[in-house]
Amino acid sequence: MPFRMLNLILLIIFGYLLGSIPSGLLISQAKGIDIRKVGSGNIGGTNVLRALGFKWAGLTIISDVFKGVVPAYLAINFLTLDWQVVLVAISPILGHVFPVWLKFKGGKGVATTIGALLILLEWKILLVWPLIWLLVLVTSKTMSFTNLLMASFLPLAFWFSSFSLTYFIFGFILAILIWWTHRENLQRIKEGTEPKFKLKKSP
Asked: Is residue 97 domain-resident?
């Protein structure tokens, strides 16, 4: 097996296993709570925020972002072809959404996707992206709606960042994945029952 192909396979496996570490669940369990039985039942940062407050949600989000940063960084430095980098970059996101340790029932993949974006997107887009995200969040006060709207622009963000068809398709795949993981949120948005975003934990 060629050395570069071996690198690709090892990085994909590493990315998936790293991504499948359930940061939110481990942090909540350390605080005496099973986050899967609180709020929406999701193991991501938004649900941790509702249950444990900003500090622990921040730690969860940083951990989940880190899971996306490391494989993408390694891919950029050890692989040369766009399609190889993309396969490695998506592996921790798939690991987060479908973790082997939790019977393939994980989080929504947003923070881990952001980690990959920090490495793969051009710096000018990275400067504008959080400003738009914050503006939408402040306006809508709904985290899921904000994430879904921003995910919809991922194909364009990748195109203007790289002008690569591979990355453009990658953006579409990420957008579809994030919309799929938010299908329950979409139903609640439709019914008007989706919780509003707050910076403090629920009483």
From this structure: yes
